[in-house]
Specification:
Number of strands: 7
Number of helices: 4
Low-confidence stretches: none
Largest sheet: 5 strands, antiparallel
Strand content: 25-35%
Structural class: alpha+beta
Order of helices and strands: EHEEHEEHHEE
Radius of gyration: 16 Å
Length: 143
Amino acid sequence: MAVVGSTIMLDLHLTEDGDVETVRGAVRQNERVDPDLANRIRETVEGNAAEALTREDLEGYTLSAGVELVTGRVPGAPRERITITLDFEGEDSVVAAVDDAVSAPDRARIADELETTAYTYLQEHNLDDVVDVTVSVTPIQFR
């Protein structure tokens, strides 16, 4: 079976009022993404991707989202980075149609929804005013 997918980067940029240890305390559990946050991210990404595929009447695929914490130093401003691998597995004809089904507007919608999910989580931890969220979603490509 063929696999295509997208890599999504969720960056939590600390403002000048932010404390990296406080943010890490809310986002991390050991060297992994906090399970509650990871589940919210996974549900948001998978739900929006599935919705895009349903609109195009695509069937016969497996959809999965893996959520990983980048533990090494990320160049630039202080931030926490979470990467999400969004994969679609299926027969060649099905995965070839995924790129058209999950178009640029759909990827933008995934980014917007993921940003909202992150801000909601940060708000629950009283961090929404000290962290800025940036989401980028790469185009679909063969893995």
